[in-house]
Every structure is written in C-alpha cells, then in structure tokens.
Amino acid sequence: MFVKKNSNGKANRYSAEIDGYLLTVEVMENPSELGISNGRITRLLLFPSNKNERLDEFFVFNQGWIDGLPHPDKVRRVIEKAVHHFDALTIDWSKERKKQQNFVLIGS
To answer: What pTM value is reported for the model?
Structure first.
C-alpha cells in the first residue's frame, strides 16, 4: 500500500493512493504526542488523486491539523487507514478535536 520515498534520519516518508486520495506521511521511529492519535505519523498531506475533484478536500497535518480537523467521513477513513497501517491504532476524533483546540491556542 505505502511506498517509502525517503528518510531524514529521524523519520521516513511514505506515499500511497487510498480510496481516490493521494497521501504522503512522515513517520517517526517512535510514537509522539505530536502524532495523529499520539502515534508515529507527525506529518500528513492528503488530496484527491483525480485532478477534476474538488481541491477543497486538501488536508495537512503538521504536528496538528493546520486548517481544522478533516470532516468528510471518506477523508477520515483514508486517514484512519494510514494510522492503522503504521501504528495499529484507531483514531479517537474527540481526542483529536481536543488536541486541535490546544494546537490553535498555542499557535495564536
């Protein structure tokens, strides 16, 4: 599913196409509080693989959700597959929402 792209010594980058979305993730060696679900994915970029799709379905996680939590269920399912693949975790979106609120307060 995921193809390794490169490594910077502390993390590896992987890419995949899942359910009509292109996904690139940065995966740390160890879990982190800064990762999705406190896992190893600390950076994520997701967008539709079909160029004719709406580009407002573009999501970035960089140790926090940049433009808010992903909301369409189909996008969440793609992210959940990535987290399960690398960390064997289930995302608790209510905890992610709380982390997001803290991320926004810190970033303000």
So the answer is: 0.88
State both tokens at 33. Answer: 């509080």
Q: Read off the pLDDT of residues 2-36 as tens digits, 9 standing for 90 and up.
A: 999 988 888 999 999 999 999 999 999 999 999 99
| 29, 31, 49, 50, 99 from 40: Cα distances, Å | 7, 4, 24, 28, 16
Give the pair of three-digit tokens for residue 7. Answer: 């490594």
Rounded distance between C-alpha atoms, residue 14 and residue 2, angstroms: 6
* Cα 73 from Cα 33, distance rounded (Å): 24
Place of tokens 């999501």: 59
Domain count, the chain: 1
Per DSSP, the three-state class of 8 is coil
Burial bucket for residue 39 (CB in 10 Å: 0-12, 13-18, 19+): buried
Distance from C-alpha of 19 to C-alpha of 4, rounded to nearest angstrom: 19
Q: Domain span at residue 53?
A: 3-107
